Amino acid sequence: MSSEGKIIWQHAHPGNNRPFIQPLAVALVCAVFIGLILTMGVMDLRRSEQTLEGFMENQGLRIIGVVERLAMENLKTMIQASQKASGSAFRPLTEQVLSPQVFFTQKVVEMAREIDNQWKTEHLSASYIRRYAQEKNLWLVAVLNAWGEVIFASRSFSDEPGRGKTSEARGSGRERDGDLLTRLGRLKNVGFIALQRPDGSGTIVIALDQDSAHYWGTRVSVEKAIEKLGEGQGQGLIYLTVRDKKRLLLGNAGKVPEELIENPLVANILGGTQKIESRKVLNDGRSILEIIAPLRLDNQVAGIIRLGLERGNTDQILNENQRNIFVFLALIVLITLLSMWLLYHDQNRHLAGIVEMERQLEKAERLSSLGQLAAGVAHEIRNPLNAISMASQRLKREFMPADEQKIKEFDIITGVIRDEIRRLNGIIEEFLTFSKSRKLELRDCPIQEVLQKIVHLISADAVSKGIAIRTDWEERPVVIPMDMDKLQQAFLNFVKNAMESISGEGSITLSIRKPAKGRVGLRITDTGCGMTTQEVERIFNPEYTTKEKGLGLGLPLAHEIIRGHGGEIRVLSRKGEGTTFEILLPVERHNDAKGAKAV
């Protein structure tokens, strides 16, 4: 037959089965909290960036507005100057009116000089003239020699604005200066400028039709506006470029990163489907906010304007906000880790306390079981002990030896038997008294009466040991609710303990203090050996005793009786100087003391 083990009881460490819930819960909550803070921080950074970019966009739109206003003023001034020049009455033009007109003339003269420089270096050709006219959006560029003959021309005169087809230059010879200038003069929608070379070796003719004149008028107006903008404004402006609807350059300032001529974005802005575009770009290692918007002249879209504003201050603010958010998150993580550690440490401490309480409870249960068992054993011992006592008395009374010498020895032996029986009976009585649990029967009695009985009980024993008993209380009785028998037993245990602590002569003082704060104080002071702090902490423990004889249950029993009365015990002791037990008892019955308490 195989034997199988059965677990009746097993102690398990509670910490092994307790999940690590509290720190993990805090960690989870903190993780969610950190996630929310991070999300809010990112959203705040985006809002800040959008706000700062909005400010920069407004700044860019203000710059664009200034360019549009100045360009429109210049364009109107040029139109006004042209109208006055064609009028019949002579009106002197002011310097403000002449400025754009002079600037326009200077631009045409500069183009003629560029062609003249090419002529000087002998790089001039028909293809160069045609390409130059196309790039500069000029209706005609012609180069004449000293005799007025056309050397190179960007176009023929088969198609003339405002007229039908005309014959080509007659004759097999080249077309002459007078013929070319005369024919240009007859064209209604064409204006021209003829500049003779400084050495008289030829003439350069530049002609503009209505479209090219409008382009160059707009370009001169825009360039003049950009020039004036650079004089009084432009803080943070890195570059600015303007093009018309045909993507032809109208003016620029600064170094533009790249052109967007064929970009669909330009078509959207020129078509009116998109009002403004802003984006972050890099130019020579600098962070720039680029703004692209339509150029409006006379409330019509005349082209596209593109400018770049430095983002240095904006990026600095955003980086500082980002750094603050990261520092704040780092602090939150640090606080989270510290909180988890504290909670873990606190939880372990509480778990250790629970384990200790369970150990003490287990020990108390074992002691209770052993106490009940020992009480039964002690009760069973009393019967044979009484029989032994009666037998020893009968031996002394009925079986006294006749020999005188043996009589003395017989008395010593029977005396030892009686003394040991008395000692064993005292130990049993003390043990049974501690193990019994009965309810207190409280009655109002004067405490002086209890103490006076104790003085009478111990006086003879104290005198025999050379111990003086002193009392200190008033004649007026102090009445408190008490179980007189139990309280007398507790006080007697304190006094006996005091007498046992005095090895030679000494004194014990019993005193009563006046009731204060609803409690009366009783002091039992001796001049015995005293106790250390460690001994004071353990004197009410049933397992602790310093006595060589007896169980040492007097003070634990007295402690339980005082607690049953709702009282408190304070111990003041110093090694070699004596001990004072201060007992505080309530002078009135409390709700928890009105009923019977088990002691």
Tell me what portion of residues adopts beta-strand conformation. Answer: 15-25%
Mean pLDDT, rounded to whole units?
A: 78
Percent helix = 40-55%
Kindly report the spatial arrangement of strands forming the biggest sheet: 6-5-9-8-7
Distance between the termini: 51 Å
Largest sheet: 5 strands, antiparallel
Rg calculated over all Cα atoms: 61 Å
What does this structure look like?
Among the domains are: 63 residues; 157 residues, Heat Shock Protein 90 (2-Layer Sandwich), CATH 3.30.565.10. The chain is an alpha+beta fold and 599 residues long. Helix 2 packs antiparallel against helix 8 and helix 11 packs antiparallel against helix 13. The strands form four sheets. A five-stranded antiparallel sheet has the order 6-5-9-8-7. A five-stranded mixed sheet has the order 11-13-14-16-15, covered by helices on one side. The N terminus is likely disordered. It is rod-shaped and about 190 Å long. It has 14 helices and 16 strands.
Observed structural traits:
single chain; 599 residues; alpha+beta; five-stranded antiparallel beta sheet; 16 strands; 19% strand; rod-shaped; disordered N terminus
Short description:
The chain has 599 residues and is α+β, with helices and mostly antiparallel strands. It has helices at residues 14-17, 21-86, 95-120, 126-135, 177-186, 210-232, 264-271, 312-398, 404-435, 447-464, 484-501, 533-538, 554-564, 591-594, and strands at residues 140-145, 150-153, 191-196, 202-208, 237-244, 249-253, 277-283, 286-297, 300-310, 443-446, 467-472, 479-482, 506-516, 519-526, 568-574, 578-586.
